[in-house]
Amino acid sequence: MRYLLLSEDGMTDRSTTSEAEAAGVVYLAGGVEPAARATHLTVDGARRTVTGGPSGLDNGAGRLVDFAILDVASRAEAVEWAGRFAAASGGRHIEIRRVVLHDERLSAADRRAD
Amino acid sequence: MTDAGIANETHAAIEAVWRIESARLIASLARIVGDVGLAEELAQDALVAGLEQWPRDGIPPKPGAWLMTTAKHRAIDQLRRRSNLQRKHDEIGRDRELEQRIALAGQASQDEDDVGDDLLRLMFTACHPILPRDARVALTLRLLGGLTTDEIARAYLVGEATIAQRIVRAKRTLSEARVPFDVPGGADLAPRLASVLDVVYLIFNEGYSATAGDDWMRPGLCEVALRLGRMLAVIAPNEAEAHGLAALMEIQASRLAARRGPDGEPILLADQDRRRWDQVLIRRGSLALERAEGLGGALGPYALQAAIAACHARARHAEDTDWARIVALYDALAQIAPSPIVDLNRAVAVAMAYGPAAGLEALEPLADEPALRGYHLLPAVRGDLLVKLDRPDEAAREFRRAAEMARNSREQALLRRRAADAAGSPTD
Question: Residue B322: which residues within 8 A CB-CB, separation 6 or more?
């Protein structure tokens, strides 16, 4: 089962995830830029409006959001790893969400564990 | 939340801790007490203590350390009890020594490198050639994969008692043979490492061959093997073949979603919807393969198989496949790890790269190969090539032969239809 871990607390630099890497559960880890630098596309009928983006005005305000996608046996295991990431990075809050790919049918096993 | 809900949640959390910590716990204990079977018992005892205390007191902040401390106390208790009972002088002396080792081991806090070394020792011990292959597999899943006996039994479609007995016997064999808990050195290292990699890949293939309707633990074996393979690449970073095996499994796992149709029927590589291949796993596999090659391991059997898998992974469409390179890789593989199956695959690649006549020629020497007698894919491939060469009668004969050899009914039906198609094609 695949879970997405999200945190603004500097969760996924190498030293934080090394234990999980060694355990073979890290599928993908990285970061996305702060919400303040995000580009927004708004569609109204045929009209597209693009706002935001790195305008230079935001001075890099906001925090990078780190993410890690883990392949684990259960949600509880994802939570346990999140606890370890927080302990290693001094982070306080990590959000944990199940990842389901478009072509992935929920198997009996997945239903069982959630 | 209800009390039952909280209890369930705590139980799931403890299971998760066990999945993460058990291998390291058993590995560290085995180094201290020198016996894998005893180490596992102590670890289990510690888990039982956790199951009693944690639902009441909460899970400690460092559950791994808690389990370790508890297991060491158990070990010392057991030794004292035994000394008092038996009162054999030399044994008491030996137990004292062991007791001291346990006490000392508690003082130094372990760093990650030590843990990695212990895990590596545990892998080598669980995959020791003194054990039969199925025992190596069961022991590896149990000690390193953190699977329960019941989970292993379900994954292998056998009774739980069979697996339990296999594990007990394996632990006894290791203990009686006084197999040292260590990483082999010198000339022993290469064959022993090959045995470890072989076991991990066996587990992966067992999961890969699972079919729809099988117990969900079976495909789960792929995940377990991938975890073990990634772990090996981290704890044995200088072993090229460890990276080669990780690369091979990552790339094969990338196709897991694409290799079966809606009714669970297998889809051949050439017919798979390549948009469903997992590009993240392909990337991970390619990086692992680069690492294997960077360590001078390009010609290792797993690195070569990974390189062949990578050739397929790189091709956006089946017709973009670099078959000439695949032929060259099979040539190399046939030299270092000769097998009739490799020759058969090579012949298919030859046909794709240089035409069906060349492929047929490459198949020629395999006709009398005893290992392939009764193997339906040999006549099936020949039938395929004969169709392309516009020799329908011979093709139909080959497909009929293949159908007789095929073991499952779905394949038999498919091959008979191909025989009929081939025979009917000139008049249609």
Answer: B311, B314, B315
Q: Quick one: B9 and B34 in the same domain?
A: yes
* SS3 (DSSP) at B62: coil
Q: What number is the average pLDDT over the span B166-173? A: 96
Please indicate, yes or no, whether residues B326 and B382 belong to a single structural domain of this protein. no
Inter-chain touch B257–A104, beta carbons under 8 Å: yes
> Quick one: B17 and B97 in the same domain?
yes
pLDDT over 70, % of chain B: 92
Contact criterion met (CB below 8 Å) for A18 and A113: no
Q: How confident is the model at residue B53 (pLDDT cuts 50, 70, 90)?
A: very high
DSSP line for B90-159? HHHHHHHHHHHHHHHHHHSPPPHHHHHHHHHHHHHHHT-TTS-HHHHHHHHHHHTS---HHHHHHHTTS-
Q: Are residues B387 and B364 part of one domain? A: no
Q: What is the pLDDT, as a whole number, of residue A48?
A: 93
Is B50 in the same domain as B98?
A: yes
Binned at pLDDT 50, 70 and 90, residue A59 comes out as: low
- Whole-number pLDDT of residue B92: 63
Entry pTM: 0.89
Q: Which token pair is B1? A: 């939340």
The beta-carbon neighbor of B12 closest among A23, A76, A107 is: A76
Looking at the structure of chain B, the number of domains it has is: 3
Q: What is the pLDDT, as a whole number, of residue B428?
A: 43
- Give the range of the structural domain holding residue B334, as residue numbers without chain letter: 322-372
For B226, the closest chain A residue by CA position comes to A24
Q: What one-letter code names the amino acid at B390?
A: D
More confident residue, B368 or B302: B302
Task: Please name the member of B112, B116, B227 whose beta carbon is closest to the beta carbon of A25.
Answer: B227
Say what the ipTM of the complex is: 0.83
Closest by alpha carbon to B288, among B303, B308, B301? B303
Rg from Cα positions in chain A: 17
> Of B78, B110, B142, which residue constitutes the final position of a domain?
B110
CA distance A57 to chain B (A): 34
Whole-angstrom distance, CA of residue B106 vs CA of residue B230: 29
pLDDT tens string B212-252: 667 777 888 999 999 999 999 999 999 999 999 999 999 99
For chain B, say whether A28 makes contact (Cβ under 8 Å). Answer: yes
- Are residues B328 and B425 both part of a single domain? no
Calculate how close chain B gets to A109, using CA atoms only, in Å: 6
The pairing of strands A26-32 and A65-71 is antiparallel
B340 and B404 inside one domain: no
Interface size between A and B, measured as CB pairs under 8 A:
66
Confidence of residue A107 (pLDDT cuts 50, 70, 90): very low
Domain boundary among B75, B110, B145: B110
Are A76 and B257 an interchain contact pair (Cβ–Cβ within 8 Å)?
A: no
Is A22 in contact with B118 (CB distance < 8 Å)?
A: no
Tokens of B378: 């040999």
